[in-house]
Write a structure and sequence with these properties.
The protein is an all-alpha fold. 77% of the residues lie in helices and 0% in strands. This is CARD domain-containing protein.
Length: 188
Amino acid sequence: MADTDGYQEQLENDAQFLCSDQRMDTELVDRLVLQLNRIYPQILSDKEAHGFRNLSVPTKVRLAELLNHLHRRGEEACLEFYRALHIHAEDIYFSLPTRIRRREMADLQQTNDVAVKSNHERFVLNDRGPMFFLSCFSFVVGIAILCYYGEGETLRCTGGFLHCSAAARFSKDAKDVFVSYAEVGKQK
């Protein structure tokens, strides 16, 4: 069943289930008929509603006739039947074969989307490329060297490194930090 199936086709597929389900009792069929008659009199007139509420006719027969009538009335009538069923018998509505298939298809589609997404994410850690990784790695190595050699009395041994690093393609703030460390080292 595709998502583009209309309510008429869904009602045709669900009709056998609805007619055989024990939960579709006389009271529920009457509530559905009244809902369709009161709210949508263009779908189910008073005369038609009276015929579908006739208690001398077995409930299963009345329900089958109602479903055939709605199917003949068109898409809007079938849609309103499904709305009424959803309002008055949510458990039956969600156990309809077309609803179950739709839910299974949605779950399958969601599972496929997650699998494709996780495979893509597994191989792509970030979208910045190898130069971003190398620049971050170089920056961390530079800071580690600075900290290691900077614990002595002076920073003379790292002075040339700091000036060289400041000339590299770092941001203005990073260059200022490197130059200030180099100048502090020269003053001591």
